[in-house]
Design goal:
The protein is mostly helical. The chain is 64% helix and 0% strand. The chain has 2 domains: 1-76, no CATH class; 120-231, no CATH class. The chain is rod-shaped.
Length: 232
């Protein structure tokens, strides 16, 4: 019989270094507890928790029932509780790390797509007309890709280079004054003013991230300024 201070029992069967059979000892304790209330109290004291409180399913033989009770008792130990807390903490850490990796992957894909979108054939800029044609074709492609996860990366920016990095008040103004056919400038700005409205952009291309939305708003404001100036 183990000393009273040995009040926990591992679910794994084993012998100690002196050849003591813990499984046989536990078997005796369990079935005595089931048969006699006084014995149940004694074994509860020795093991630190009751052995006789787990109903036995009809499908279990003695050996299966013994392992079942061991498992249930193990779940009531402090060691098991600590193990479960550590496991949950590890799972939370894994989830957080996975989200960090996914965020880094999304950021990489975004940067890569923006770089690819900016690699425009310089031959397109031999004339303002070419830049305007490229801009119109790009808008058709952007509308076709609406709803895609990366649709916002294909936004045709109204600057001569077509590059997101070149968007500024000066370059937007230069694009419309240089590339737009002069006879249709006011009418074109009226259409572009509606097209670049932030709400309209998000309706067409889906929800934009904060940085892209800020740039879209700046483009809209510049187009609105040009339109308001020219129509008066």
């Amino acid at each position: 019989m183990p000393p009273p201070e040995d009040r926990t029992h591992s679910a794994a069967p084993h012998h100690d270094s002196q050849g003591f059979d813990h499984n046989a000892f536990f078997r005796e304790a369990l079935f005595e507890s089931l048969q006699d209330a006084e014995a149940a109290q004694r074994w509860e004291y020795i093991y630190g928790q009751p052995l006789h409180v787990y109903p036995r399913p009809e499908s279990m033989d003695d050996d299966m029932y013994i392992e079942y009770v061991k498992g249930m008792m193990w779940q009531n130990t402090q060691e098991y509780s600590s193990e479960q807390r550590a496991k949950k903490q590890q799972e939370r850490s894994w989830r957080e790390e996975r989200e960090k990796l996914r965020a880094a992957d999304r950021a990489y894909r975004t940067r890569r797509a923006m770089r690819m979108n900016s690699r425009v054939d310089e031959s397109l800029y031999n004339s303002p007309e070419d830049a305007w044609d490229r801009y119109q074709r790009a808008w058709g492609a952007a509308v076709d890709s609406s709803g895609d996860e990366n649709a916002q990366l294909a936004i045709p920016w109204p600057v001569m280079s077509g590059r997101y990095a070149d968007v500024s008040q000066k370059h937007v103004e230069e694009f419309f004054y240089t590339a737009t056919p002069s006879t249709t400038l006011v009418a074109t700005l009226k259409v572009e003013r509606v097209r670049w409205h932030p709400d309209k952009m998000q309706q067409k291309l889906g929800k934009l991230d904060a940085e892209t939305l800020q740039t879209v708003t700046a483009v809209f404001q510049e187009i609105d300024r040009l339109y308001s100036t020219l129509r008066t």
